[in-house]
Amino acid sequence: MIENHISLLLVVIPLIAAPIAAILPWGRASWMLTLVVTSACFVLAGLQLWAVVHNGAISYELGGWAPPWGIEYRIDALNALVALIVSAIAAITVPYALLSAEKEIPKQQIPLFYSAFLLCFAGLLGITQTGDIFNVFVFLEISSLSSYALISLGQRRQALTSAYQYLIMGTLGATFFLIGVGLIYAQTGTLNMMDLAQRLPEVTSLKTVHTGFAFIMIGFALKLALFPLHLWLPNAYTYAPTVITVFLAATATKVALYVMLRILFTVFPDGFVSVTPTGDLFLLSGIAGVLTASVYAIYQMNVKRLLAYSSVAQIGYMAMGIGFASFKGVTATIIHLFNHALMKGALFMAVGAIIYRIGACRMDNIEGLGRQMPWTFGAIVIAGLSLIGVPGTAGFISKWYLVLAALEQQAWLSVGVILFGSLLAVVYMGKVIEALYFKPASEANLSVKEAPILLLAPTWVLVFANIYFGLNAEFTVGIAEHAARALGVAAK
Predict the structure, then answer these.
(1) Cα separation, 209 vs 356, whole angstroms
(2) How many independent structural domains does the chain possess?
């Protein structure tokens, strides 16, 4: 039965397809292969989530070796949801990539581009599927190395320096994570996450375990771009090809956040977050990230860079949810993990449509384009309202649950930061809308036409998703609560 092998297929299919895409002689042939693979993975991820919700967690033993001796893929509601996000964003991004990639990437590099894209896709899915903490490192390296190559394909020379900066920071993060895993393994003798959860309570008082935990958290804080370890992200998002900015912004940080949640609440003993300074550090980092990155976003003249700093701020909101170390806080984090993928994916796609038409996205280049590109402008407005957290959008559901989690803890400062962060989002999104619609268009911009349907259709799929999940939050809230329980976070 194929249902028994979905977790393996989600990793194997894109991994096998990647080298095939590289050797296909025609760029659009590799695009078609990538479209088929990502669409198939989206269907499989949907089936996997359905199976987990209705039948409970799935355990898949690779090679017939029983865990913890063999590698286990273990799927519960949380990683099934993250796998669905990754595959859904990939399936929506690939149709968008047909024109966007051809515009921004040299023709001879298109097959290699799709090969690297599939490798990155396979790595991210692998992280979500595995129940082995060392395997997380292996898939992390697969996704990271391909990400560096993808970012370097940007049109401007800064893409190379951005990819190099990301490579250095990513290597540091992976090294920290591996050192932490080694220290934990030295004390427990196992790498299986469920086995670690059973053995760690006996050794949590040891300084080696605390040191290993700190190394792991710092390593993934770098991958997550958690403030103040975010410095690689603005350049990477700004200078990467637009389709890669869309994909990474909507998936890579979400997968990194998933690993942090898994380690904090499943691998380490219940209450470890609350009895160590970890929760307070996440809370402080989240508050600082929301305020600092939002202020930085206000002063950006490049729209992609503005949205990149906005992503750092949104990661701050998720960190605050973790910092509350409560059922509602973790639920709010998971809800925002899902909703942020929708809103930021739509925004970067809309900006990519502008770049496709005029080749730039600076504030002074886009003046008056809102009238010339009404569908693109509409997508930016609606996705921007979701980012702000206006009722009726997915972003409102995220902010609402974050506020509820803060009120439960009587964290009045956090409530104020969430609300003030939303006001700052009004300012920086207002700048974009003002430039697009309320500034007079230059002579060159008066002749600009609306973006092609192949760019608009995927953008509006995400825009409508922002509206749908803002009006009907039953799916996102239900799955997020299910996932929080699967992590072992008890509801009060």
Answers:
(1) 50
(2) 1
